[in-house]
Amino acid sequence: MNFTKLFVTSLMAACCLLLPSAAAADPVLFQVDTFEGGSQGWFTGGPFATPQPAAVVSGGPTGNFMLLTAVGGAGPNSRLSVLNASQWTGNYIAAGVNVITMDLNNFGATDLYLRLMFEDPMFGPPTNVAFSTAPVFLAAGGGWTSVSFLVWPGSLTPGLGTVNAALTGATAIRIYHSQNPGFPNPVVPIPPISAQLGVDNIRAAAIPEPATMLLLGTGLAGVAAKVRRRRKVAKCEEA
Predict the structure, then answer these.
(1) What does each C-alpha distance from 20 to 8, 17, 133 come to in angstroms?
(2) What angle do CA 89, 32, 139 make, to 5 degrees?
(3) For residue 123, what pLDDT is reported?
(4) Dihedral through CA 80, CA 194, CA 192, CA 197, nearest 10?
(5) In this predicted model, what pLDDT tens digit does every residue of 81-113 receive, in sequence order?
(6) Backbone angle region of 41, left / alpha / beta, with phi > 0 → left and psi within -120 to 50 → alpha
């Protein structure tokens, strides 16, 4: 086995050992929304908005996908935003979920800057809100792209209350477009945009956090150095 294969194999094995176990809480680690059975609890707000999102029966990476449409302007459906208040609520920290991955397709003509938001509570004025500090950039016409949203405390900004409280008591999760950092509120609303976004395979996952990855990398570097020394000794003995 060459050094590259040894390093990759060691990294994968170590990462598996470091993954936290799921607790008895929603969301569940490794749960996935494939949209094969409809919109799976995702919805848009507003009493006058056209019912959304649509579940498209083909064209996604693995079949069906969710299609979200924003028409711009100032009326209903003017903003790109979608909510879930069912299977994606609960205690993210206890569940061991610190990354949400999904496949996205920007069908529109305008680049998108996508963020996640967690809030508690959903109904009435929220007391805890946390949103993605850095957006995921999705170029127009780029086709299906796999992206990851980090949801550990260091990757989120508190809009109200604390990030930890928003992650431990999430009553709603939102995917939305906003180039500027901020959370949707009457003072700084989501910007209107004309866009179409395809979404598929929303998955709850876990990866080692940065400090753990640093320790992991240091340990693997030591293993690699030891392998190189043994190889060098072996070559000298053969000579």
Answers:
(1) 21, 8, 24
(2) 95
(3) 72
(4) 10
(5) 999 999 999 999 999 999 999 999 999 999 999
(6) left
Joined together, the tokens standing for residue 119 give: 């809030």
Residue 206 in contact with residue 20, Cβ under 8 Å?
Answer: yes
Nearest to 64 by CA among 29, 87, 33, 41: 33
The answer to which of 7-11, 184-188, 233-237 has the lowest mean pLDDT is 7-11
Residue 50, both tokens: 């056209």
Spatial separation of the C-alpha atoms in residues 108 and 94, rounded to whole Å: 37
Pair of tokens at residue 94: 């206890």
Please give the Cα distance from 232 to 239 (Å, whole number).
11
Question: Cα–Cα distance between 98 and 176 in angstroms, integer?
Answer: 19
Smallest CA-to-CA distance from 193 within 18, 50, 22, 69 is with 69
Amino acid 188 reads: V
The reported pTM is 0.77
| CA–CA dist 183, 159 (Å, integer) | 6
- The conformational region for residue 126 under phi > 0 = left, psi -120 to 50 = alpha, else beta, is beta
Q: Give dist(CA 180, CA 190) in Å, integer.
A: 9
